[in-house]
Amino acid sequence: xxxxxxVRAGTGAVRIAEVDGGHAVLAFTGVLxxxxxxxxxxxxxxxxxxxxxxxxxxxxGLERLDLSCxxxxxxxxxxxxxxxxxxxxxxxRPVQRTLRQAGVESVATIEE
Length: 112
Fold this sequence. Notes:
Elements: E1 7-9, E2 12-20, E3 23-32, H1 37-43, H2 47-51, E4 54-65, H3 67-78, E5 85-89, H4 93-101, E6 108-110
Parallel strand pairs: 3-4, 4-5, 5-6
Antiparallel strand pairs: 1-2, 2-3
């Protein structure tokens, strides 16, 4: 079930592309920065994500990720007693670098 209300501010967006059983796919596009942070944090509290035990973060459409948004992903991934298994797919090198700076690689598999 696709999300009809994606987070969108400026040129960046993230949406829940699908949730199937225990697996959720989030699709990222454009530029996510401090202007999108509060909307991103609200999306990451979605109950469908809480119920998923695995998340795939499709970042193939993401041009740039602000460090504050990367930290929001880190917080969301680690807040549950049993954190979801995280896989990052398609992230450009600068986005991967930001994810690593936030420590996301300690809780996620970053695929190239």
